[in-house]
Every structure is written in structure tokens, then in C-alpha cells.
Amino acid sequence: MINIIWFFILCFGICFGILGGKGEEISKAIISSSDSTVKLAISLLGIMCLWCGVMKIAEKSGLTDKIAKIMRPILKILFKKAAEDEKTMGAIVMNLTANMMGLSNAATPFGIKAMEKLNNLNKKRSEASDDMALFLVLNAACIQFIPTTVISIRAAVGSKNPAETIIPGVIATAVAAAVGVICCKIMEKYF
């Protein structure tokens, strides 16, 4: 659906510009923006490779496992039915840990596996369980200790200190996660 919306926005803008007599300016803008896009993508590629390597080292060194051990008791309190199944909790913990460390590519398979396991525990197949909704909120508002994407983009566009967003990012994502969990727990009582 979003592809269709973007297509119509672009077509409408281009047609409106051509009918307004700005065809030459539109073609110049398209060419210059595509040039800068390619340059940005190439500079991002190197930085993302570096951060993915650092995160892979964190994963191989056991840092993500240590974070998972810290998170497991907390998550057992938050998740009702999922806490009874070790495999489901394992997938949830690994997904959230990978997200916290900026390993979004590694987090996706764990997230899919966690949602499948949560669905197996769900008695009402036609609607999401409370645990599924809570997992979705935690996955979307996960605390980010190392926001690799933001750091990479800031470095690619020439920021003097691309990592200065780490502390505000941790604070913002922690608040978002806390508010999300509180809202889920309140909604569980009424819906």
C-alpha cells in the first residue's frame, strides 16, 4: 500500500511541476538528488559494515548473552503465558537483546520465531494475545544502547560527533519502552 501512495505522490508532484512550467528544474533536481543519494549510500555502506562487525564481535564474545541473562527475569514478570515456555522466552530475549545492541538484521529471525511461538500459545487465533501485543510494543520501542543506524547516517553526512546521540537515544527509548509497557498492562485489564 505504501508503494502505491509514494507512486501517486511522486507522479502528482512531477505532473504538477511540468504543468506549472518547471519541467527543466524538476529534471535537474532529479539528477542532482540521485547523485547525492548514491554518494550517501556508498558512504553509509562502509560505516554500516563497521558497526555490523562490531555488533557481531559483541555477539560472538557473549555480551549479548550476558544482557539476555539480565533481561530474562524481568521479562518473565512482564509476559504471562510466554514465561511458561522456555523456547518462547528464549526467542523473545534474543530478539530484544539483538535490537538493544543494534543488530536489527539478527533480531528479525528471532522476532519472527518469537511471534510464531506466541501464536502457538494463543488460544484465540483470530486476535493477538496480550503477550503478542506486549512483544510488539517492546520490539518497536526497544531500548537502544548503540543506535548504529543513527550514528552511521550522522557520520556519513559529516557530523563532527556522530555518537553524541547515544545518551539521549538511550533515555528516549527507555522512556518509550516504559510507557509502552505501562499502556499495555493498563489495556490488558480493560480489553
Automatic annotation (TrEMBL):
Signal peptide: none annotated. Keywords: Membrane, Transmembrane, Transmembrane helix. This is Spore maturation protein A. InterPro entries: Gate_dom. The chain crosses the membrane at residues 36-54, 133-153, 165-187. Pfam families: Gate. The lineage of its organism: Bacteria, Bacillati, Bacillota, Clostridia, Eubacteriales. It comes from Clostridium luticellarii. The gene is spmA. Residues 42-154 form the Nucleoside transporter/FeoB GTPase Gate domain.
